[in-house]
Structures are given as structure tokens and as C-alpha cells.
Amino acid sequence: MVVVDTSAWIPFFNRPDSTPKYIIEDLIDRGEAAIVGVVLAELLQGCRSPGERAELKEALLALPYLGVSQATWIAAGEISGGLLRKGITLPLTDLIIAAVAIEHRCSVYSLDAHFQRIPGLPRYTQGQK
Q: Which one, of 124, 114, 109, lies nearest residue 9 by Cα?
């Protein structure tokens, strides 16, 4: 399973000929794309109309949903603490995405390079099975 980050969903929806569009379509076709709450909220906040929001919500809720547990919050804090001690600050939203992916043994597909700085987080690359 692959958690798809907001940074990859944006070109998926806005640029029909983009690489992320093809990669995410392939993940969806193979039943491997997953959604997490933070990404769902970030995408919904960008909708311009109630109709667009309803359509987007329907499409995203068709994907497997990976929830956040108390252990996820603890893991996000521990990941963040380890990074902060190295002088690295990442957004809490991305720390939660990483913690959920690690907890569920998933990789993350993101266009944000800072996910590479999270120890133990597998990143999805095109063609990976």
C-alpha cells in the first residue's frame, strides 16, 4: 500500500499530463493508493465549491483509509524529536503522514523532498511493486 501525499494529489487533479497523474492512476488501478486524514483535509480545504468538494470527497473515500491511533501520535512526536535534535524541523502534517505509513508498513508517494529525511520511511518510486 502507498500513502499518497497532498503534494502528489495536486498535480493529479490539476495537470492531466503530469507524471504524478500517471503514477497515482497506476496505484489506484492496482488497489495500492491509500488516503490518510491529514491529506483528505488538506485536499478538501482547497475546493472552490460544494459540488467540487462532494465530488472530491466521493473519489477519495473510495480509497483505503489509514487511520491515526494514539501510537501514531506518539511515533510522530518521536520522529519529530529525533529530527529536531539534528536541527531538522518538518511540518506536523507530514510527520503524521510518515508515522501512519510506518505504522501500517506502507511507503509514501510525495513530491516533497523532506520526506527523505525521515528515518525508516519507505518512499514510493515509479515502477515499484
A: 109
- Per DSSP bridges, beta strands 107-109 and 2-4 are parallel
Q: Do the beta carbons of residue 2 and residue 39 sit within 8 Å?
A: no
Q: To the nearest whole number, what is the mean pLDDT of the chain?
A: 95
CB-based contact 91:76 (threshold 8 Å): no
Kindly state whether residue 127 falls inside one of the protein's structural domains: no
Residue 109, domain extent: 2-117
> Which CATH number belongs to the domain containing residue 83 in this structure?
3.40.50.1010
Whether the predicted pLDDT of 129 surpasses 60: no
Residue 126 pLDDT class (50, 70, 90 cuts): confident
